[in-house]
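TA notes, week 10

Several of you asked for a full example with nothing omitted. So below is the full record: structure tokens for the whole chain, then the designed sequence directly under it. When grading your own attempts, check the secondary structure regions first.
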């Protein structure tokens, strides 16, 4: 699983999040960039090029001396790694019999040769061919890069780095997209995602087609579909963008947005929800923007309390239909931002010059 749909882990290395394979010791048979392609690997029988069989993955030449290959991936979102998947699908006679995974934490955008301090996430261990080899990781620290080593050589179809995003809080001040995965938002619940994952709603950038958004099955009852987003932190809601781009004959007829202020709750109780955008007709293939100001509590838009402060939002699509993106713009309240700073600081590796230095 490579997205952040309800119940799914986030692949921190995902290309759609800005992940990049920045170095490989060798890629003679198949390009390193294939490692982080979002789709499942495929096999094309009978396809050969000038260098041999064409594989959907990364494949190195055969070593004739004591050595091994490795590839370095810059994570699209830095975070805490819980599991690494080294997928050798379709590599049967040319897979690496052993692998290891290390991680680095770096400030800024270092070149591959500037990454000099590596920490072991997965000790050198056996791998199977044509298999999604899963390796649990127990490190509580925040990482920005991973290095996959294969012993001695061979092919790997995909590398998945499942974990919890932990963005730099210095970039979370001011008005931000509180729902964005790259800022710490996540899908907490979804009624249906038959055609495409609800996690796509909170990915960076614009969708490039219907497959890049969220699409549910056609309803044949009197109900409606919904998706619930846990925001990056408790924040003041300002405006939202509900994007139906690419959905021409299968966009919702109407939408409604609810918000809840329920710190610490995985999912708010039914009684916690309040309406911040009433039932509103929407158009196909359109980016809609709506102001969602104070909805009646004390304090309102001053960021100190009131009806437009929330930890979760729920978007109802009536009766069903697909969406490309959901953006929820606002500001994190001061005490929540301070908590994010403390969490980020505690997860930094014990390095001589940790990113950003001390955080107050």
């Amino acid at each position: 699983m490579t997205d952040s749909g309800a119940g799914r882990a986030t692949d921190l290395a995902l290309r759609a999040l800005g992940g990049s394979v920045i170095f490989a010791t060798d890629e003679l048979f198949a390009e390193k960039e294939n490692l982080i392609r979002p789709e499942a690997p495929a096999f094309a029988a009978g396809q050969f090029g000038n260098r041999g069989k064409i594989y959907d993955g990364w494949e190195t030449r055969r070593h004739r001396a004591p050595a091994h290959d490795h590839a370095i991936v810059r994570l699209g979102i830095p975070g805490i790694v819980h599991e690494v998947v080294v997928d050798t699908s379709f590599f049967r006679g040319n897979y690496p019999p052993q692998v290891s995974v290390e991680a680095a934490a770096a400030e800024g955008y270092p070149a591959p040769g500037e990454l000099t301090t590596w920490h072991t996430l997965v000790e050198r261990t056996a791998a199977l061919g044509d298999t999604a080899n899963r390796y649990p990781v127990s490190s509580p620290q925040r990482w920005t890069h991973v290095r996959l080593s294969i012993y001695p050589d061979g092919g790997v179809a995909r590398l998945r780095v499942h974990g919890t995003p932990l963005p730099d809080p210095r970039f979370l001040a001011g008005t931000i997209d509180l729902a964005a995965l790259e800022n710490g938002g996540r899908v907490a619940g979804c009624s249906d995602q038959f055609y495409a994952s609800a996690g796509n709603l909170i990915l960076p950038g614009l969708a490039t087609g219907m497959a890049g958004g969220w699409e549910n099955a056609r309803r044949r009852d009197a109900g409606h579909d919904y998706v619930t987003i846990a925001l990056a932190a408790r924040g003041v809601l300002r405006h939202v963008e509900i994007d139906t781009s690419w959905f021409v004959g299968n966009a919702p007829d109407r939408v409604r947005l609810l918000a809840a202020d329920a710190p610490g709750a995985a999912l708010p109780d039914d009684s916690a929800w309040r309406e911040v955008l009433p039932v509103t007709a929407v158009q196909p293939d359109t980016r809609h923007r709506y102001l969602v100001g104070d909805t009646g509590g004390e304090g309102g838009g001053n960021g100190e309390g009131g009806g437009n402060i929330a930890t979760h939002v729920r978007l109802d699509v009536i009766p069903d239909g697909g969406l490309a993106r959901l953006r929820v713009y606002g500001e994190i309240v001061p005490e929540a931002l301070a908590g994010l700073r403390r969490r980020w600081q505690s997860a930094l590796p014990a390095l001589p010059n940790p990113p950003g230095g001390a955080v107050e």
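The chain has one helix and 20 strands. Use that as a sanity check on your answer.
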